Every structure is written in structure tokens, then in C-alpha cells.
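Inverse folding, one chain.
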């Protein structure tokens, strides 16, 4: 169950990062409010997952999901570039997440 909560927390991190971007520096009310709601939910789920997962594993996986997910959202929804170097970086992050999962008990 902890891994499911951690995955949802990571997805919520992607959502709040997106809303923070579209809030235009917190100048738009609804995206700003959604940023805070998803941020709190993400941190709460991360906290619950950390009850049974090691700190290093949980935090690394959470930030990795957020980083790669935000990278993908940037490319597919915000028109950010998808250069070969950026794609390689995302693959390396995903590889690290897989290794982190495989190394945890």
C-alpha cells in the first residue's frame, strides 16, 4: 500500500507543479489554489508512505516521479523542447527509480 500512496503522491507533485506554472507567479486564483491543494495532498501521502518505506527510497522515488512527470507535462502540454540530451536525462532518472525500487525491501 505504501508504494501506491507514494506513486499517487508523485503524481500529485506533477499536478501541483503544473498548476504552479500556469498560476503565473500565483497571480491567478484558481491555479494558485489548486497548487496548494495538490501540494498538501502530495506531502500528506508522502508522509504516510514514509511510515513503512525508508526515507531515502521514498523521497527519491517521489522526487523522481515529480521530475520525470513534470518533464513530460512540459513537453506534451506546454510545448517545451524534447532534445536528445533531455530525453537521456529522463531515462537515467527512470533507471534510478527502478533501481531504488528493486533495492528496497
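Residues assigned per position:
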Amino acid at each position: 500500500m505504501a508504494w501506491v500512496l507514494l506513486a499517487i503522491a508523485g503524481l500529485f507533485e506533477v499536478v501541483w507543479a503544473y498548476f504552479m506554472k500556469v498560476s503565473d507567479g500565483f497571480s491567478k486564483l484558481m491555479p494558485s489554489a489548486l497548487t496548494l491543494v495538490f501540494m498538501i495532498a502530495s506531502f500528506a501521502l508522502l508522509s504516510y508512505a514514509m511510515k513503512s518505506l525508508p526515507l531515502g527510497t521514498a523521497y527519491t522515488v517521489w522526487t523522481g516521479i515529480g521530475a520525470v512527470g513534470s518533464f513530460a507535462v512540459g513537453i506534451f502540454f506546454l510545448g517545451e523542447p524534447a532534445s536528445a540530451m533531455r530525453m537521456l536525462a529522463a531515462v537515467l532518472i527512470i533507471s534510478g527509480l527502478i533501481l531504488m525500487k528493486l533495492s528496497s525491501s
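Residues 2-103 form one domain. The chain has one domain: 2-103.
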